[in-house]
Amino acid sequence: MSYEIYASQWLNTAAPLSLASLRGRVVVVTAFQMFCPGCVINSLPQAKKLDTLFSRDDLRIIGLHSVFEHHEVMGPAALQAFAHEYRLNFPIAIDQACESGPLPRTMKEWGLGGTPSTIIFDRDGNLALKELGHLDDLRLGAFVGQLIAQQASRQDTNTGAAQAAVDQDGTQACGPTCTY
Amino acid sequence: MSYEIYASQWLNTAAPLSLASLRGRVVVVTAFQMFCPGCVINSLPQAKKLDTLFSRDDLRIIGLHSVFEHHEVMGPAALQAFAHEYRLNFPIAIDQACESGPLPRTMKEWGLGGTPSTIIFDRDGNLALKELGHLDDLRLGAFVGQLIAQQASRQDTNTGAAQAAVDQDGTQACGPTCTY
Amino acid sequence: MSYEIYASQWLNTAAPLSLASLRGRVVVVTAFQMFCPGCVINSLPQAKKLDTLFSRDDLRIIGLHSVFEHHEVMGPAALQAFAHEYRLNFPIAIDQACESGPLPRTMKEWGLGGTPSTIIFDRDGNLALKELGHLDDLRLGAFVGQLIAQQASRQDTNTGAAQAAVDQDGTQACGPTCTY
Amino acid sequence: MSYEIYASQWLNTAAPLSLASLRGRVVVVTAFQMFCPGCVINSLPQAKKLDTLFSRDDLRIIGLHSVFEHHEVMGPAALQAFAHEYRLNFPIAIDQACESGPLPRTMKEWGLGGTPSTIIFDRDGNLALKELGHLDDLRLGAFVGQLIAQQASRQDTNTGAAQAAVDQDGTQACGPTCTY
Question: Where is the Redoxin domain positioned along the sequence (chains A, B, C, D) (predicted)?
Fold first, then answer.
C-alpha cells in the first residue's frame, strides 16, 4: 500500500507537500479535528513540542485536518483562525472532502479510525506506526528517536515521477477510491 | 453598577436566563471563546466539574461566549458543534455583537479584559469575583463553597419588574452603551 | 464518638495541639506516611496549598503521621528530614504507636482505612468528612469553603476540662482502646 | 574520564552491576535521594516508565541513591522500604559514603550537581548526557531512542580486565579521590 496525503488546501507552507518529497526525513502526521477535545488538549500540543526537538531536515510534523463531522463549521477559514490561536506553525493539510460520504479521502485511504490519530513514516517513507488516540510522550519520543537514528536506505527516492503522481492525485476530486 | 447578560441567543436552555431570575443562587459565569486555548484546556473543564458539585438550586454555571476576534468563524452553528463535542451541558449565552466595535456588549458592560474570565455573583446577585485567566481549582472551590453557605438576604428579589427590564435589554440592539 | 489526636510527638508547633483547643476553626487533618506515594504526590501538596488559602484563625491544617508499616525507618528523625525537604510548615502529629499491633492509636480510634486519609472537622468540632484516598481539589475546596462560612454554634467549647482530658490522653501509653 | 559506579550495596539485583559489564546496552542512571521531592514526583516515575519501553538487552535503568544530606535517616533499610512502596524494580546502587565529606563517591567522581540527575551512557559506554533536574518525557524518549538505534561499535568491550578494575574499585573504601 502506498500512502499519500490528499489535500484540498495547505496552511503554513508555501507549496503543497507530499510524503514522497519528504523522503529522507522521518514524518509524523497528526490527524485531528479542531473540535476534537483529545486532539486539542493532548495531540496538538505534543506535535508542537515534537516539532522543536529535531531539525526539520530530520523530522517533519504535518497536521492533517480530517473532518468527518460538523463539516460546515470546520472549514478553511475556521481552521486558519484555530491554527493562529493555538500557535500551530507546522504545515497543515486539509483532508479532501469526498462526495461519497462524510469521511475525507486521506482518512479513508489510510484507514484511520478517528481523531486524534498519529501516523509515522520512516526516512524511506515506510509506514512505521498508525495509532488512534493519545500516545504517551516518553513512548512517542523513544519511537521517533529510533527512526531518526536510522539512515535512509535509498537516497534517490524523491524522484520526479513520484512527485508528479502525487501532484496529480492531490488535485483530483475524490474518485473511485472514495466509494467504499 | 448593575450586571446583566446581553445575549443574542442561548444554548442548552429552553428559555433565556437572566441574573435577576437566578437570585437566591450563586452564579458562576465563564466567559470564553471557542478558539481560546486557556478556555478550552482549563476553564471550560473546570466549569463542567464545578457544575456537578452542587445542586442547581444552589449553583448555576453560565457560559458566556464573548467573541472579540475571528467573529466570522465563531458563530452560533460553530458554537453548537463545539459545545456538543466538549459535552458542555450548562446554559451558554452568546454575547451580543456591537456595531461599534469587535467587543461584544456584555464583555464591554462588565469591563472584562479578555478570555477566559470568571465572574461570580453571590445569592443576592452582588458581584463577588471578576478575574481574568485561570483560577486554581482549590481556590475557586473554596470561594464558591463560602458563597454557597451564605443565605440570601432577600428572598423577594426575583421581581417581575426586574425580569421585564432584563428581557427588554436582552432583545435590544447595541445602543449608546456600546460607544465607549 | 469523640475525636482526639493521640500524638507521641509534634513537629512544627511550640506546644501540642488538640482538636478541642482548635474549636471555632475548621480543622483538616491529613493522615499520611512519608513513604506512601499517594500522600507524597497528591495529599501533602494539596494540604500545603489549602494552608495558604485561609487565615489560621479560620482553618488549621494538621498532618498526622500514622505509620502502620516500616515503623523502624519512619521514626521522628526521618519525619523531621522529610518535612524539611518537602517544606511542610503546618503542625504534624506523630500518631502514637500501640503495643497491640502495627496500627497507631489515632488511626485505630478514628477507624481510618489507610493513607492518605482526609478528616475534616467543622468549627464546632464535629466530624464533617472522613475519606480514604485523594480528594479532587475543586471538591475539597468547595467542602472546606462551606464549613469556613458557617459560624461556630458555641463559643465556649474550648473549656479547660476538655483540654485537660486531651492532655491526659495525649501522654498516655496505648491502653485498652488499642486491643481491638 | 572513566565512569564507574561506586556502590556500598545494591538493591534489586542478585549481583553488583558495573557500567563495564553493561557495555552493548544503553544505560540510564537516575541519581536520587528518597527525600528529594523532584526525584520522587518526577524522575523516579519517569525511570519506571522508561524501564518498560525497551528490552533490558537494549536498555538498563539504574537507580543511584546518592545521599548528601540527612544521611542518618536515608540508610539501606529506609531505602529498601521506600523502593518497596514506590514499586521500584530496577537495580539501585547505594552510592559509597566518603569519610572526607557529605558527598558520596560516585556523585563526586561524576561531578553531579545534586538530585535528581540523569546520566546516560551509549552502547559503547561513552557518556551521552549528564543533566541536573527533570527532563521532559518527550525529549528524554527521543534522546534514548536515538541511542538505542545505534549499534555498539565494539563488541568486545566487556573485557575481563575492565571488569576486574571495576570490582576492585567497587569494594574500595573512599580514598584519595574523595579529598577534593
Answer: 15-133
User: D73, C77: Cβ pair inside 8 Å?
Assistant: yes
**pLDDT surpasses 80 at D155:** no
Q: Which domains does chain B have, with CATH numbers?
A: 7-159 (3.40.30.10)
Question: Chain C residue with minimal CA distance to B149?
Answer: C146
Mutate to test the interface with B, among C54, C138, C151 (most CBs of B within 10 A): C138
- % helix / strand / coil in chain C, to the nearest 5? 35, 20, 45
Parallel, antiparallel, or unpaired: how do β-strands B117-121 and B127-132 relate?
Answer: antiparallel
For B153-158, the CB contacts below 8 A with 24+ separation are B153/B123, B153/B124, B154/B23, B154/B124, B155/B24, B157/B20, B157/B23, B157/B24, B157/B124, B157/B125, B158/B20, B158/B21, B158/B23, B158/B24
- For residue B53, give the chain C residue with the closest CA: C139
Disruptive mutation site among B42, B58, B138 for chain C (greatest number of C CBs within 10 Å): B138
CA–CA distance, B35 with A70 (Å, rounded to integer): 16
Q: Which three cell numbers stand for residue A96?
A: 479532501
The tens place of each residue's pLDDT in chain C, 180 residues long, gives 689 999 999 999 999 999 999 999 999 999 999 999 999 999 999 999 999 999 999 999 999 999 999 999 999 999 999 999 999 999 999 999 998 899 999 999 999 999 999 999 999 999 999 999 999 999 999 999 999 999 888 654 444 443 333 334 443 334 333 333
Helix (H, G, I), strand (E, B) or coil at A28: strand
Which member of A36, A40, A81 has the closest CB to residue B73?
Answer: A81
The beta-carbon neighbor of D81 closest among C40, C70, C81 is: C70
Contact B69, A78 (CB under 8 A): no
Neighbours of A139 (CB within 10 A): 17
Residue C41: strand, helix, or coil: helix
pTM of the model: 0.86
Q: Which of C118, C122, C137, C148 to probe the B interface (max B CBs under 10 A)?
A: C137
Find the residue in C nearest to D77 (Cα): C73
Closest CA to A118 of B107, D27, A109, A127: A127
Q: Partners for C (CB, 8 Å, 3+ pairs)?
A: B, D
Neighbours of chain B (3+ CB pairs under 8 A): A, C
CA distance C21 to D59: 57
Dig out the grid coordinates for D13 from the structure.
539485583
Q: Is C37 in Cβ contact with D85 (below 8 Å)?
A: yes
Q: What's the one-letter identity of residue B126?
A: N
Residue in chain B nearest C149 by alpha carbon: B146
Q: Is B161 on the interface with C (CB under 8 A)?
A: no
B53 interface with A at CB cutoff 8 Å: no
Cα C117–chain centre separation: 9
Sign of the Cα torsion C137, C140, C143, C149 reads negative
